[in-house]
Amino acid sequence: MRTVVADGVLRVSGPDRWLATGPNGGYRTAPAAYNVSVPDGFERTDLDAYVGERRERAGFGTAGPALLTGVDLVHARGARAASVTVVATAGLSNPAALPMPSDGDAGRTGRGGDGGPDREFGTVNLLVGTTRALDRGTLATLLATAVEAKTATLQSLTGFTGTTSDAVAVGCDADGGPAEFAGSGTAVGAAARACVREAVRASLRSRYADHEIPDDVPDAEYGVRTDERATVFDPRRADRD
Question: FRET partner for 155 with CA separation of 20 to 30 A, picked from 82, 91, 161, 162?
Answer without folding.
Answer: 82
